[in-house]
Amino acid sequence: MDILHSQLTKIQRQLAFVAVEPINWKLYVQSFSWAVTLFESYLLIRQYPLYSRKEPPKELAEHFEPGVFEKSQNYGKDKAKFALISGLFKQLLDSLMLQFGFYAWSWTAGGKLLAKFGYGPEHEILQSIAFVFILFFLSSIPTLPLQAYGTFVLEEKHGFNKTTPKLFVTDLLKGWALAFGLGAPFLAAFLSIFKWAGDRFVPWLMAFMISFQLVMVILYPTVIQPLFNKLSPLPEGELRGRIETLANKLKFPLKHLYEIDGSKRSSHSNAYFFGLPWSKHIVIFDTLIQQSKPEEVEAVLAHELGHWYYLHPTKMMSISQIHIFTILALFPAFLRAPPLLRSFDFPKAVAAQPPTIVAFLLFQMILTPLEAVVSIGMNAVSRHFEYEADRFAVELQDQLGDEKMADMGERLGRALVALHVKNLSTVWVDWLYSAYHHSHPTLTERLKGLEAFQAQREKKKL
Q: In what residue span(s) does the CAAX prenyl protease 1 N-terminal domain sit (predicted)?
């Protein structure tokens, strides 16, 4: 622990200038946040002409019924327009809040609110919670029309929306209640560790973050998910039999197999698994069951089990912990930096003893350009994992010695095509747009990958 602390101290010495030099951090954040937004707009403009193509890639032409590809292109075009406008609107909103001291005002407002209940500025954690939720609620209100448009106009126009206005409002209120119910104690614990651990907070915060993630793995399916969707045991039948047999052969620790009523809100489909290492749960959207054959759903689950087999969730969690550690290691220099808060219009009295949550929030803004680069790297890792999981499905027969698994790669390819066609997913994708936005390879890339894996498998047999 002492060695770690000494290394972190060296980093802080290199960043000591932050605490004394009057850098115009507001201009820095404004410039780089706009740079990221304009770059994302540029990517949308690069992608947009591809929605005007009249024919799908030749590898996919036979899978589109007449008129379906045109619907897919129109859906992609409308989503791109909406993404461009909403992205610029949100950036403009954030920029105005920064420019006119909204963050400083929210901290003061939180203090005044607590004062009415007899709590003074010495209760920093309570004021921090009030500050965060004032920011959260007031900044989310202007974006509500965008959410409503996306659901009731965009998704409705293309036949995907199943959400009623009542359900939309109910979900919104539940989300806010959940944000407060979980966010307030999380934030209180997070800030308490800062105060208790002093300069040695990094390893303790890391331990807290990992523990919180593990707790959420337990709470999500038992407490949070049921607030929004109904999870029912997958009925007995061919699909359940296929999945349980596959899980048993792979020694996958399957505890529950659920069907979720995704069609309650949308006709988009998906499947996923979650849980602790010794207790896993598989969830399949009812829309996926309706849109695909049992053998194709089994292939999708074979791909998902490939992620488990290669420990992809654990690896991604490890990478994210390294990312969090890096952020926390850099943060102390910004924690005691009055010029940072003064740059964002905080009063001298507040800036002289920077509140932890305020300094951390502003620090996160400063990291905006770095986070954009990190997201590209994370996407690259995720795509590599997707290829590995696809290869796992293709080679499943060799691993299990089951001839019934010989066509798993072909089944997975058919399932992927069906999912893309039913969801009107874009099949023409600009490479740079994909690198920045997509955590999965494109459909054509995955189909070519499946063919290559199958060819390699056949070659090994010769």
A: 47-230
Note every long-range contact of 198-206, with CB atoms under 8 Å and residues 24 or more positions apart, other chains counting: 199/5, 199/9, 199/332, 200/1, 200/5, 201/328, 202/4, 202/8, 202/325, 202/328, 202/329, 203/1, 203/4, 205/328, 206/321, 206/324, 206/325, 206/328
Q: For 194-208, 345-359, 369-383, which range has the lowest pLDDT when averaged over its residues?
A: 194-208
pTM of the model: 0.88
From 259, 304, 395, 430, the catalytic residue? 304
Residue range 140-183, pLDDT digits in tens = 999 999 999 999 999 999 988 888 999 999 999 999 999 899 99
φ, ψ of residue 112 in degrees (nearest 5): -65, -40
Domain 230-291 sits in CATH at 3.30.2010.10
> Does 303 belong to an annotated binding site?
yes
CA dist 139 and 328 (Å) reads: 26
Type and span of the H or E element at 272 = strand 271-276
pLDDT score of 36 = 94
Structural tokens at position 328? 């926390």
256 annotated to a ligand binding site: no
- Rounded CA gap, 104 and 358, in Å? 9
From the candidates 390, 407, 430, 445, give the one annotated as an active-site residue. Answer: 390
Tell me the Ramachandran region of residue 257: left when phi exceeds 0, alpha when psi lies from -120 to 50, beta otherwise. Answer: beta
Residue 312 has pLDDT above 80, yes or no: yes
* 78 has catalytic annotation: no
Known catalytic residue at 2: no
Is the confidence at residue 42, as pLDDT, over 90?
A: yes
386 marked ligand binding residue: yes
**Residue 258 C-beta-side C-alpha neighbours within 13 Å:** 24
* Domain segments of the chain as ranges: 230-291
